């Protein structure tokens, strides 16, 4: 694929995404651009390349926004903010999630995991400790990308028309693969259209963004806003200091 082609497609995607991050127009326009410019990459090629990537430690901050438009004139939108310390190559992980002003904590180290969620200004008064730890094979973000790509390929409805398009772009100043999947099936004489899009860092295999859109009714978007590919973790990152009056529940 020529360099000029990549620049045109990348610019188009950035502009459209800024206008409407949830719109299926983005997928259609990028697909059209990829087809016109004779894309040379296939999903199998990207999967094969990603399968060569090895797990690494990362620190990421991201947002996850869902939008439900099933009820006309009453769309519901919810956003969760994430902070993610992924040191699963050493069996350590910390996740902080914030939604509606409340923060949840999950810390795993040495085969033990602790979860705690603030339910009020005073806290939940309850934390759960589990003997189930984290492992890179299952929990590392790079391996999560491989799992998601495999699912994207296999998750196809019978009798559905499916198209994949892949272009190379830039996101967060990183070279990425932008993978777009459109699946269309007729149900009860009505067209059922689902879009799935992934933006994957070419060098590491980390997913930087994803969008899912089902009939423009149920929509979700995950976007990494900050990433450190060479984090300097310390012991405190994987220690959870609980309020003194919290009840401990062992699971």
UniProtKB/TrEMBL annotation:
Residues 1-27 form the signal peptide. This is Outer membrane lipoprotein-sorting protein. SUPFAM superfamilies: Prokaryotic lipoproteins and lipoprotein localization factors (SSF89392). Keywords: Signal. The keyword Signal applies. It comes from Brevibacillus laterosporus (Bacillus laterosporus). It comes from the Bacteria.
């Amino acid at each position: 694929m020529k360099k000029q082609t990549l620049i045109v497609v990348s610019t188009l995607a950035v502009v459209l995404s800024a206008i409407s991050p949830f719109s299926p127009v983005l997928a259609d326009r990028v697909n059209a651009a990829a087809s016109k410019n004779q894309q040379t990459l296939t999903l199998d090629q990207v999967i094969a390349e990603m399968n060569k990537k090895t797990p690494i430690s990362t620190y990421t901050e991201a947002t996850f926004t869902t939008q439900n438009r099933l009820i006309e004139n009453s769309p519901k939108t919810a956003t969760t903010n994430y902070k993610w310390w992924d040191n699963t190559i050493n069996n350590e992980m910390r996740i902080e999630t914030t939604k509606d002003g409340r923060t949840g904590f999950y810390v795993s180290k040495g085969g033990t995991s602790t979860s705690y969620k603030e339910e009020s200004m005073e806290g939940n008064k309850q934390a759960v400790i589990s003997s189930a730890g984290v492992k890179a094979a299952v929990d590392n973000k790079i391996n999560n990308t491989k799992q998601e790509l495999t699912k994207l390929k296999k998750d196809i409805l019978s009798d559905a028309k499916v198209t994949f398009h892949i272009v190379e772009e830039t996101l967060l100043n990183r070279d990425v693969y932008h993978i777009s999947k459109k699946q269309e099936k007729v149900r009860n004489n009505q067209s059922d259209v689902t879009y799935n899009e992934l933006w994957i860092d070419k060098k590491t295999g980390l997913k930087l963004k994803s969008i899912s859109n089902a009939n423009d009714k149920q929509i979700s978007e995950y976007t990494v806003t900050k990433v450190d590919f060479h984090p300097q973790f310390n012991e405190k990152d994987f220690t959870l200091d609980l309020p003194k009056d919290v009840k401990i529940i062992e699971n």
